[in-house]
Amino acid sequence: MRSKEKKKGNMLVKIIVVIIFLACIGVVINIAPNYIQETELKGKIQLIINNSNVTKKLKNDVIVDENEIIYISFKDIENFFDGDIYYDNDYNQIITTSNTKVATLEINKKEMYINSSKVKIYGSAIKKDGTYYLPFSEMQKVYNVEIKYTKESQIVTIDSLNKEQKIGNTQKDASIKYKPTIFSKTIEKVKKGENVVVIENQDGWYKIRTKNGNIGYTKEVTNIYNARENMEDEKQIKGKVSLAWDYYTSVVPTRNEKIEGINVVSPSFAYVKNEQAELQTKIGEAGKNYINWAHENKYKIWAAVSNNEVGKEKTSQILNDYKLREKLINNIVNLSTTYDIDGINIDFEYMKEEDKNVFSRFIIELAPRLKEYGKVLSVDVTAPDGSPEWSLCYNRYKIGQVADYIIFMAYDQYGISSTKAGTTAGADWVEVNIKKFLGQEGVKEEKLILGMPFYTRLWKENSNEIKSDVVLMKSIETYIPQTAQKTWDDDTKQYYIEYQKNGSTYKMWLEEETSIKEKFKLMHKYNLAGAAYWQKDFESPNIWNIVKEEISK
After folding, report:
1. Domain termination residue (choose one: 384, 409, 434)
2. Is residue 168, in this structure, part of any structural domain at all?
3. Domain containing 383: what range?
4. What is the mean pLDDT of residues 272-284?
5. Which range (31-40, 147-156, 359-368) has the least confidence?
6. Residue 46 banded pLDDT, cuts 50, 70, 90
7. Per-residue 3-state assignment (H helix, E strand, C coil) for 147-180
């Protein structure tokens, strides 16, 4: 009897031992990750960007030379700071941009140009083992960051100066843990009162960054305050943009009337003069009066700059040469600052399809230069999927990323070269292309402005030919015979007329108050950034009241 009881007791002990053993395994499995060392980081300089350790994501190691100049590779800058960084083979230089800066660094030359001004630096852009590196510690002003290297911990920290940062103090000597648990490995010990960057609070554990750059957890943080607030760009226009393009010459009298419903005027103040990237302005005293009139009426002025005078070949020469692009950009910036202009509207049309990327480079390099002075950049583009020289020459996605606004010139659906009569801007066609901008082209709705025509075309057809003439909105009624009947076209959302005269058939799709209202419906339906009107003085008398009513719905 006693033997059986003894056996049962031994069995119970064994079961308890097994249970304890399994529990211990479970604890070890649970705690072990808190002690795992990142062996792949050993011997490497670690990189912390905005309190995130990105070392594992680096394409190339960070280099710190004997003078403690910190080098980061081209590919890693592309990944973390400038997706548009560019090596310019013609001038053996790297061009990089940020929110308000354009920097160029010639390889192996200890100088840098920031917004066209020369700056001496102690490191240079280099090529090592087939990879380009930039002296990032020399470029803090370019990227608006603060950078620090701690030799003891082999950690480089980079903080964006436009992002929030919280600072606290350790309230007593503290062990900084790898993970938020007392079982975790201690990665650093800090003294009472030491400043730490506070990243977040996780159930009583503060995720912090020490002065050595280590990121870990502690409960011993007090006196937390905001050392920096998030900085966001303020929009120049509150609400919807309502822009009137205005054909301007110095012989046109200064405007004195108020234009209802608009908040931006875009006068044709300048154009590219020649292949040397000189800019011809048309301002003078009359232009200064125009600027005063606009500002007195609380309109912003986004001066239009076109390439109409130079054509596609000379435009191509300028776009493909960095020095010429830079010269043109400097001229445009000088125009905007000299005359107190609020923004620039780039109207480059009829370009080579193969120049799509260099036109994007032009916009990429122009945008920061204007933003430095608080100027707005808008870019006019045509509908997607058209001809090579009028449509396929634009990278709408990239332009939409970089510029403040991209303006869809939603007209000339059937234009001067069309072999078939049709509308200038049917609502169905406009809507299809808005969907393309927002879909396949990847343009954000808050960047897209819908351009509307204040004109149409009168088509004349006979057995031998078809041709058309532009008819201004204000003159449409004079082209409609009394016998002609207006019929509503529900696809184009326009009235249509057709009549016979002298053996020819005349056709016209009307652009007037009703058709413009339908286009505003599309602007609101897709929550676009606003509307633009081509052009002032083409309109019928009541159209600005319609604009005022529709833009703010």
Report:
1. 409
2. yes
3. 243-409
4. 95
5. 31-40
6. very high
7. EEEECCCCEEEEEECCCCEEEEEECCCEEEECCC
Give the model's pLDDT for residue 252: 66
Q: Are 416 and 442 in contact (CB under 8 A)?
A: no
- Looking at residues 293-322, what average pLDDT do you find? 97
- The CATH number assigned to the domain holding 191 equals 2.30.30.40
Residue 511 inside a domain? The answer is no
Say if residue 42's pLDDT is above 80. Answer: no
- What are 384's two structure tokens? 């997607």
Average pLDDT on 109-113 reads 97
Q: Quick check: is 16 in a domain?
A: no
DSSP codes joined into one string, 22-83 = HHHHHHHHHHGGGT---GGGTTSPEEEETTEE-GGG-SS--EE-TT--EEEEHHHHHHHT-T
Q: If pLDDT is split at 50, 70 and 90, which confidence band does 40 have?
A: low
Ordered DSSP codes for 179-231: SSSTTSPEEEEE-TT-EEEEEEEETTEEEEE-TT--EEEES-EEEEEEEE---
Cα 296 to Cα 1, 236, 289, 428, distances in angstroms: 111, 16, 10, 39
Q: In this structure, what DSSP letter does residue 253 have?
A: P
Q: Whole-angstrom Cα distance, residue 291 to residue 501? A: 47
- Give the span between the Cα atoms of 243 and 468, in whole angstroms: 28
What is the pLDDT averaged over residues 437-455? 98
Residue 337 shares a structural domain with residue 394: yes
Residues 183, 309 within the same domain: no
Q: What is the mean pLDDT of residues 408-421?
A: 95
Q: Are 257 and 172 within one domain?
A: no
Identify whether 34 is part of a domain.
Answer: no
- Two structure tokens written together for 24: 């211990």
Give the whole-angstrom CA distance, residue 349 versus residue 62. Answer: 43
Q: Which of 358, 380, 409 is the last residue of a domain?
A: 409
pLDDT at residue 123, as a whole number: 96
The answer to whether residues 213 and 190 touch, using CB atoms and an 8 Å cutoff, is no
